[in-house]
Every structure is written in C-alpha cells, then in structure tokens.
Amino acid sequence: MAQLWGGRFTKETDQLVYNFNASISFDQKFYKQDIKGSIAHVTMLAKSGILTDAERDEIIKGLEGILADVENGTLPITSEYEDIHSFVEANLIDRIGDVGKKLHTGRSRNDQVALDMRLYVRDEIVELKALVLDLMKTLHKLMKENTETYMPGFTHLQKAQPVTFAHHVGAYMEMFKRDYGRLSDIFERMNYCPLGAGALAGTTYPLDREYTAELLSFKGPTLNSMDSVSDRDYVIELLSALSTIMVHLSRFSEEIIIWNSNEYQFVELDDAYSTGSSIMPQKKNPDIAELVRGKTGRVYGALTSILTTMKGIPLAYNKDMQEDKELTFDAIDTVKGCLALFNGMIATMKLNKPNMAKSATGGFTNATDAADYLVNHGVPFRDAHGIVGRLVLRCIELGIGLDDLSLEEYKAISDVFEDDIYEAISLKTCVEKRNTIGAPGTEAIKKVIDINEEYLKGIE
Ligand code: ARG
Question: For the chain: N or C, fewer Cβ within 10 A?
Fold first, then answer.
C-alpha cells in the first residue's frame, strides 16, 4: 500500500477499502499524460520562482527516466500504488530523493487527474478523427466508383425508388462528416488547462497558469477552479459523439448484413472479413458487422453511466468521478476497433451489380416515374397517382412489372400513354432524371463528390 497520505490517520487502511478505492488498475493507461503534465508543472514552477532551475532539471530528468523505464518494460506499474499519480511521485522520490518531494507543490490530485483525463481524451480524439477520416476516404472511393451502380432505395424496407450505390453510401458519408465535425467541436471546447485549480480553490503560490497551458498546447487556462476539478462535460460530449458514430456504424452494419444475405445477394463480404460455422460447412457469416452492431450497446451504456454518475455530485471534486475512466477507455477502444474493422470490411466487399440492378427493376420502383410521365402530359398528380395504382394492380394480376406491360394495357387505363412511356420508366431514366442537388442522378452526385473531394483535402 503506497499512498501519498496518512499523517492524520492512526490506523492502516483496511485492505478491502484500499482495493475498492484504488484506481491504478485502470488509470495506469495515462502514465504518459501524467508524466507530461508533471514536466509542464515543474517547468512552470521554476519559471515562477517556486523551484530553482536545478531542482526543475533534476525532477524532469527523474520523470523522463520513469517514462523511459515504463516504456521499455523495466518499471512495471503495479497495484502496490493507489493510482498512477502516486506511482509516478513515489518512483520519483525513490530515484532522486528529497527534491522529488517538491513535485506536488501547488497541485492536488484533483487538478492533476482533471488534466490527465483531458490530455488523454484530447490525444484519443486525434486518433478517432484519423479513423473516421480513413472511413470517409473509403466511402468517397466507393461513391466515385459507383455513380451508375443501380439498386433499389427502400422505405419501410419495401422497395421504393431506384437509387445508386454511390447515393446510398453518400448518405453515410454525410453522417460521418457530421461525426468528424462533432469530434473537432469537442476538442475545441475542452481545450483549456485545469492545472493550477488545486484541490478546488486554486493555490497560494504565484502559479503562471497561462504558461502551463501554453506548454501543454491548450488555448488557455480554465477560468474557474471549482469547475476545473468538477467538469466532466467533455467526457459526456465525447461519449455522446461516440454513441452517434456507433448508431451510424450499426445501421450500416445492419444493411450490410441484409445485403449479404442469401435472399438479397447485393454484396459479398471478403473471406478475410467473414467467419464460418462449427457445424454447417456451407456457412459464411457476417460476424464483424454483427459485432459492430452488437458493441453499440456498450458505448451507449458508457454514456448512460457517466450521465448517471455525474447527475447528483455536489461541487467540487468527489470520488464518484473516478468512475469516468474505465467506461471512457472502454468506449474509445471499442469505437476505434469498430471503425478500423468496419472500414476494412467495406473496402474489401464485392458488389453484385447485376443483382442490385435486377432488384431495382422489380417491385414497381418506377411507379412514381410513371405518374410523373402523366403529370408531364397535363394530368394532375393526384389523378396520375390513381391511374398508376390501377396499372400496378393490373401488373400484379398478370405477374409482370410496369416495363413489361403492353401499350394496349396502358391505354386501356389512360390514353395519355404513348410508346415513350417505356423509356420514361426505364431504370436509367428513373435515376438519371433526379438531378437536383442531393439526388441520385449522375450529374447531381458528381457535384457532391467534388464537394467531398474538397472537404477531404481540407481536413487531411
Ligand atoms: N483516482 C482519482 C480519480 O480518478 C484521482 C483523484 C483523487 N483525488 C482525491 N482527492 N482522492 O478521480
């Protein structure tokens, strides 16, 4: 039991209490951030005349030694310490003696942990953004390659109107663009340094908080010491943004599972991204998509946990807040894994274009276009809707589609129809005529692809 406190106690901590209270098993994950923060802190202490330059140099050398030894495996982080802060400080004192005891001058573990968590989350946001960017690049490529890959668009999972694969994937591209933006916004909003807030009420030392903030690349110091040690909004925001990423990945996964099914056969997942069955030799299962869909629940769980943990905590620091870490680490690692695997899965899947086009031709996906044909010939839309409804009924009786219905049959229901109806309701026309911005027509989608190209260049 290596603790940073004990002077006012007359008894040893009960072992079960110690175990329950300790956070080293998980907060060791930010040893790097803890050491980086301590180096900035002592640099500032020396600049402010609180430590001598020689003391600063000795402490920094000691901290750098600890970092190197943790990384090369010679200094394991063990449960003998209460938390990562105690581990670093105790090891520093072991290494450099009494001068190490000056490290914690003008600092509390409350502002220290607030800093470590911010540094950690900030680093992870950078990595998460890179992964979302990789995924967007894959989606962009798929869009460019599939502006004329026709497929049915669905509402209520019923065939509705034909679209293209570029258009369908383009919908996800927009979602991930917003996800990327959300991560950037969170980074900007949280990018202020809490160090110097002390336990809750600042310190009596003349700390140069602006300088510490600058050393750690923050925009500036936080402006209220009580808020600094109590704020976990950025964790809530991050977990909310991660949950939204998971909604998108999960919906996309669900679609891929459907498209990859024996019934649809729109796509075939690569062998490297599929799994088999222990009993049924023929099976090739979309487990990766299913796992991404499944792990969404964990990330939502993390968001619900932190919201619940934070809701009743009076200002300022309370130990409840130690609970922010495991769930945040788990959610970040889960989302990073899902983004990387999902990206690999869609980059390698094959499209069964003939099947997609065939499916887009069936199911009366051109019925709206048949009605639009009548409107273009002067029939009011509501009447046109009724006429085409009767045509569809006739086709169902005959077991054929609108493309195969004879002109005679068309004319029997409305004599407005002429021979050019077939061209007007062909799959190609149905898609290509939809050319307002945001629609699936090639001209429209190419404009969006150009916009996305510029967008991607701007953030790379
Ligand atoms: N392990 C603690 C946490 O994660 C560090 C801060 C401890 N502060 C304290 N006053 N006990 O929140």
Answer: C
Total domains, the chain: 3
Catalytic residue IDs: 156, 277
Cα separation, 286 vs 342, in Å, equals 11
Beta bridge partners of 150: 164
Residues in the chain: 460
Alpha-carbon distance 105 to 112, whole Å? 12
Determine the distance separating the centroid of ligand 1 and the alpha carbon of 313, expressed in angstroms.
Answer: 14
Take residue 220 and report the two structure tokens written for it: 């500036």
Together in a domain, 380 and 319: no
Please give the Cα distance from 293 to 125 (Å, whole number): 22
pTM (2 d.p.): 0.94
Domain that holds residue 312: 110-148+162-209+222-358
| Res. 2 pLDDT band, cuts 50 70 90 | low
User: Which residues, other chains included, contact 7 with Cβ-Cβ below 8 Å and sequence gap of 6+?
Assistant: none
| Rounded distance between C-alpha atoms, residue 22 and residue 281, angstroms | 49
Q: Which amino acid is at 348?
A: T
Q: Which residues line ligand 1 (CB under 6 A)?
A: 23, 27, 83, 109-110, 113, 317, 319, 321-322
User: Phi and psi at residue 421, in whole multiples of 5°?
Assistant: -60, -35
Query: What tens digit of pLDDT does each residue of 122-160 get?
Result: 999 999 999 999 999 999 999 999 999 999 999 999 999
Residue whose pair of structure tokens reads 């996305």 in the numeric block: 452
Residue 27 pLDDT more than 90?
yes
Cα–Cα dist 166/442, whole Å: 9
For the stretch 43-81, pLDDT in tens is: 999 999 999 999 999 999 999 999 999 999 999 999 999
**Cα 22 to averaged position of ligand 1 atoms, centre (Å):** 9
Q: Which helix (H) or strand (E) holds 358?
A: helix 353-361
Question: Residue 215 domain-assigned?
Answer: no
Tell me, in angstroms, the distance from the centre of ligand 1 to residue 252's CA. 40
How far apart CA 168 and CA 352 sit, in angstroms, is 15
Residue 1 maps to a domain: no
Whether residue 314 sits in one domain with residue 191: yes
Residue 194: how many CA atoms within 13 Å on its side-chain side?
A: 27
83 is written with which tokens?
């938390």
Q: Which H/E stretch holds residue 162?
A: strand 158-164
**CA–CA distance, 435 with 400 (Å, rounded to integer):** 29
Q: Which of 300, 330, 358 corresponds to the end of one domain?
A: 358
